[in-house]
Design goal:
Number of domains: 2
Structural class: alpha+beta
CATH architecture of the largest domain: Alpha-Beta Complex
Largest sheet: 3 strands, mixed
Shape: elongated
Order of helices and strands: HEEHEHEEEEHEHHE
């Protein structure tokens, strides 16, 4: 009696992604997929899985833990062979890589949009700015939640001292950036919205 050789069931990218959606970041209650940490998935004919992923910061103290968790969850996928996780830093991670659902959980719903009075609203910064071990900057709110930022965002945050209206802030950055005011206004309103939701700014009464 002859038996046909059973073909190896091919592991798919969807199977890998679904498994990784169960792998939660130890510091944030979101999966590595929703956080946008997965940069690439490749699967060989032998079902060996290669993952390219990043961390939110190079100084992440839970680097090894997260890599181990990724391998553990992928190991539960039937038929998976060897698993290799490569940590990459280009392009640098930013909050833009997060899924819409993740952004909503972190920043909240956009309930304040279009309710800001540019002529009267004055905003005051809250929280503090910290420098990470890798030199990157983060703004920490009073709930000790950190948000990755660059020097330009820190400068804007510091300029919100409770004495200037949004129109005055927009005028100042329009002069500095030499950009059309309508473009600057759009960016500033969006940024203020995010910082209010992140509790990095508060309305000054």
């Amino acid at each position: 009696m002859y038996y046909d050789r059973l073909a190896l069931a091919q592991v798919t990218e969807d199977m890998v992604i679904n498994a990784l959606k169960q792998c939660m970041d130890p510091e944030v209650p979101l999966s590595v997929v929703d956080l946008g940490l997965i940069y690439g998935v490749s699967i060989s004919d032998k079902n060996d899985v290669n993952i390219k992923m990043t961390m939110t910061t190079k100084g992440c103290p839970l680097h090894d833990t997260l890599v181990s968790d990724v391998k553990r969850y992928l190991g539960k996928v039937g038929g998976v062979g060897d698993i290799n996780v490569e940590i990459v830093w280009e392009p640098p991670w930013s909050a833009d890589r997060m899924s819409p659902e993740a952004k909503e959980k972190i920043y909240g719903k956009k309930s304040l949009r279009f309710t800001i009075d540019l002529e009267k609203s004055k905003l005051a910064k809250q929280g503090n700015v910290v420098q990470q071990q890798d030199g990157s900057l983060a703004l920490m709110n009073d709930q000790n939640q950190g948000f990755m930022v660059n020097e330009a965002l820190v400068e804007f945050w510091k300029s919100c001292d409770g004495t200037k209206t949004l129109n005055q802030l927009i005028d100042g950055f329009t002069d500095k950036l030499k950009m059309p005011r309508t473009d600057v206004e759009k960016e500033v309103v969006e940024l203020v919205q995010q910082m209010l939701e992140a509790k990095l700014l508060r309305p000054e009464t």
